[in-house]
Structure formats: C-alpha cells, structure tokens
Amino acid sequence: MDTKKILYYDCFSGISGDMNLGAMVDLGISGEYLEEELKKLNLHGYQLKIYKANRRGITGTKVDVLLDEHHHRNQHHHHHDHRNLSDIRHLIEESGLNDRVKRWSMEIFMKVAEAEAKIHGKSIDEIHFHEVGAIDSIVDIVGAAICRDKLGVDKIICSPIEVGSGFVNCAHGRFPVPAPATAEILKNVPIKSGDIPCELTTPTGAAIAVTFAEEFTAKKDFKILKTAYGIGERDNEIPNVLRVFMGEISGSCCQDEYQKAVLIETNIDDMNPEIYDYVIKRLLKNGAMDAYLIPVIMKKNRPATKISVLCREEDADKMANILFEETTTLGIRKYSVERKMMDRKVVTVETPYGQVDIKLGIYNGKVVKFKPEYDQCKKLAEENNLPLNKVYEIVKEVYRCISRTDF
C-alpha cells in the first residue's frame, strides 16, 4: 500500500525560527547543506553556529545566527537591518534558490508583514521591520523553506501552539504574551497558554507553522519514523524544545480525506476589463489556491463577470480585502467547500533540448496522469524554433520510456 510521509510539529513549548532550524537539522538535514543553500541568498554579515545542546534532560540541536562583530556594532545605523518587504522580495527573487523555496519564503514573510502592518495601521509597503528585516529572521525564514523543500514530505501537521504567558519586551514597549504580531498571525489557529511566564512562540515561529501546516490537531495518527528536537533559548520548567516527528501513514487513508476550504464569489458588471488580470494575479500571489473568471448574465440582461476565489479559511479575510480594494464590487459571497485532491509529485526528465519538469497525478498509489510544465516547454520551443506541440510530444515520450507507462 502506498504511504505518505508526515512532518508533525509538536509545539508544547512554542515555536521560534531558530528552534525550527534546530529541529530540522536534528531530523537529518545536514548543516552543510543548509549553509550552502543559504549562501545563494547573497546575504552577508552572519554565520551559523550549529551544536548539540540540552534542556531539562532532552538533547537536541541548537542553531544560532551569529552576526559579524562589525555588523553587530552598527546594526542600529545599518541600512540592511531595516529592510522593507520589497527589499526582502528582491533579495529572495534574485537568489539562486529554487522556485518552491522562494515561494514558501515569501509566504512566511507576507504573514509577518501583514500582521505588523495591521497592528501599526500602515500599509504593507510602509513597514520597515525591526525584527523581520533583520538578518537572523531572514535566515530563519528562508532556512525553514530550504529545510521543508529538502525533506520532501507529503503533509505537514501541527499541534495546538503553546504561546506562553506574562509580558514581552518589543520595540514599542511591553506587551502581553502572545505579542500583538504573534496573536494576529495565529488567527483561526488553536493555541494554548500554560504557566510559563514568558514568550514561547515568536512571530517568525508562528508564521512558519501557519504557512506550512495543512492541519492543526493534537492527534498523532501516524507511525513514528523519527523524533527530533530543536533547542530554544530558555531554561524553563518545561523543556524549551520544539519536538518534530517524521511519520508515515498509508496513502489511501489520506486520499479519502476531504480538505476544508472557502469559496468567495462576486459578480461585476461595471469594471474596466483590463483590471481583471491584475486582480487575479494579486489573489494568487497572496495565497489563493485558485482564482478564475466566469461570464454571467445579470439583471436587466447585463453581461457581467463572476470572480471566484478558492482559499484556506484563514486567508478568507485577505481575499475579501483584495476584492473590495481592487474591484468595483459592493459585496461578496462566502461558502465553505471541501476539496479532494490527487497526490502530486514533480519529476524532471532530460530531453535532447534540455530539462523539463513533469507533474504527476497519483491516485491510490498509482500514477494515473502526467503533464509537462508549460513554461519550460514553451521556452524550449522558442529556443529551438520547434512547434510547442512537438516539444510536448518529445517530453511525454521521454517520460514514457523511463517510466514504462502506456498513457
């Protein structure tokens, strides 16, 4: 029977960016690999220190981001410590990292940026981050995406998140735990608040968990393959560690699950049609699973366009805001829906003209369909002056030969 690899975050003592990196290295991602991938960012002024450490009898891995002495001394005056979102986007997009790592990194940054902007009553582009823009946060966030990509798990699940209690010192004063940004990021997520009087979950840690996890549950319904521990900064009564499990469940039990999602719709009959392209792209860039247009006839037999957006429950407000800001609509509809998805996997094939990724559709453990990546096929067609259909045929033939499939 086909099996699925599960990564389960057990946040009984919270989650932070450095605890996550520690847990990933403890799980088996090599520190050298992490450092080599991070070098693709062209980010300077720091080094990673990776070592074994112990909290209350539990041994795990600690990852520290050490700022260079010169940088540390000048960090309050240094331009790069106050990067805004477009600086960070440029840094990530210009890097040599792969597209999945770039996408996940930006999703995490967007979560923190939106929370900070909402709290301070500013637009996202106005925010100059005290924490997010700093080098250690960039390393924590991009490092999280690098590790997720390397692990190649099928599903990520997270426990309810322990946030701690008491008060925390932020750049703007003392705030109750969870700090305002953390509380904003954890909207629609189950949290717990124990007796430990300190901040256990940071905005970066919360954003990583919310971006990666498909499900939040205390249930551990899987076979444990490996347990790992990322060591935190504090020495509390409860071990300050992030525990992660690599687990396995049979593929068929996942396949039968329907995932919860939200469908948001609005009908528009009075907007410049040039704007639709921009709106759809913005929705997709901000986390929509799908966004599409349907021609409809409204009252008075007026031709119109229905915009439909499929998204996660926690992203519904964000999608609604984009529709209200960017279109002429005065109202939207929201439905709860359930999705059932085939498992998907990407394989790369080598053709006489270059490499092409192929997306496989897997059902009940079998590959039942496959599709070459359009953009890459288009590029090869243009570079080699070939019809696009011809490139598709070549790619499919190469895949059929190596996989011996008949379709």
Number of domains: 3
Instruction: Enumerate the spans where pLDDT stays under 50 for 5 or more consecutive residues.
Output: 75-80
Using the CA coordinates, give the radius of gyration: 23 Å
- Helix content range: 25-40%
- What is the SS-derived class? alpha+beta
The count of DSSP E runs of length 2 or more, i.e. the number of strands, is 18
Beta-sheet strand percentage?
25-35%
For the residues shown, what is the average pLDDT? 88
Number of helices: 13
Sheet having the most strands: 5 strands, mixed
Question: Could you give the distance between the termini?
Answer: 22 Å
Using the alpha-carbon principal axes, give the shape. globular
Multimerization status: single chain
Description:
The chain has 407 residues and is of the alpha+beta class. The protein folds into 3 domains: 3-254, no CATH class; 261-339, Alpha-Beta Plaits (2-Layer Sandwich), CATH 3.30.70.1380; 343-403, mk0293 like domain (Ubiquitin-like (UB roll)). The protein is built from 13 helices and 18 strands. The strands form 6 sheets. The protein has a 5-stranded mixed sheet with strand order 9-4-1-11-10. The protein is globular, with a radius of gyration of 23 Å.
Short description:
The chain is of the alpha+beta class and 407 residues long. It is built from 13 helices and 18 strands.
